Amino acid sequence: MAQRNVILLGGPGAGKGTQAERIVADYGLPHISTGEMLREAVAKGSDMGREAQKYMESGQLVPDEVVIGVVRDRLAEPDAAEGFLLDGFPRTVPQAEALDAMLAEAGRAITHVVLIDVPAEELVQRIAGRRSCSVCGKLYNVTFDPPRTAGVCDLDGGELVQRADDNEDTVRSRIAVFERQTAPLIGYYTDKGLLRNAPGGGKLPDEVYAQVGQILAD
Fold first, then answer.
1. Number of C-alpha atoms within 13 angstroms, CB side, residue 28?
2. Which of 97, 136, 152, 157 has its CA 20 to 30 A from that of 1?
3. pLDDT at 198
4. pLDDT the model gives residue 157
């Protein structure tokens, strides 16, 4: 079977996590996210992990060269030898260029870049509309999956609450950052003939995954 080295792109609330779980299950690829990589590197106490930890503990962004070093270490592990799924990396064109160079040194290359494309206003509705039961944790969405009684959990009558960082202003700020960083990446991978679009607006996860499966089958 041909090796699949996949990058998954999508804004906050686009459903990347759901799609990543299914890709991992169906294709046996390790799901490698930036946060997971950094936490693992710190836990292992690797040189790059110790370097990353300095920045993380002081609340600073981890510089590109350190993140790229952590990625290099992670992709060298045995479970990534036959392919991988990257989520949250690269975030910028310089990171993408460094990733390409790193993979080329190992005789490898990115094979698929999948963009789960959801309109910004729908992302706002998805995230700002999220509520969870304060008792059992069940999730709802006031627009797409509301409870039978507003503000009350269907299962146990618990109060539904909104996470502090799910407010509309914060969500719009996160989307703006994503669009600012990712628009150049979309152009970068389009120019390489790698980017494929999986429209996710108004679609159920199964419908989106049908598109993702078609993309990865190529």
1. 7
2. 97
3. 96
4. 96
Structure tokens at 209: 């995954």
Distances (CA, A) of 145 to 98, 141, 142: 41, 5, 6
Q: What is the pLDDT of residues 19-73, one digit of tens each?
A: 999 999 999 999 998 878 888 888 989 888 898 888 888 877 788 888 898 899 8
pLDDT of res. 61: 75
Q: Are 6 and 84 in contact (CB under 8 A)?
A: yes
Q: Which amino acid is at 210?
A: A
**What pLDDT, on the 0 to 100 scale, is given for residue 47?**
87
Indicate the CATH number of 4-118+194-217 among 3.40.50.300, 3.40.50.150, 3.40.720.10, 1.20.120.420. 3.40.50.300
Question: Which residue stretches of the chain have pLDDT < 50?
Answer: none
Structural domain spans, the chain: 4-118+194-217
Residue 182 one-letter amino acid: T
User: In the beta sheet, which residues pair with residue 140?
Assistant: 131
Residue at token pair 């607006």: 201
**Residues annotated as part of the active site:** 16, 91, 130, 163, 174
What is the b/e burial string over 142-167, where b = at least 16 CB atoms within 10 angstroms of the residue's CB?
beeeebeeeeebeeeebebeeeeebe
Sign of CA dihedral 71, 76, 80, 84: positive
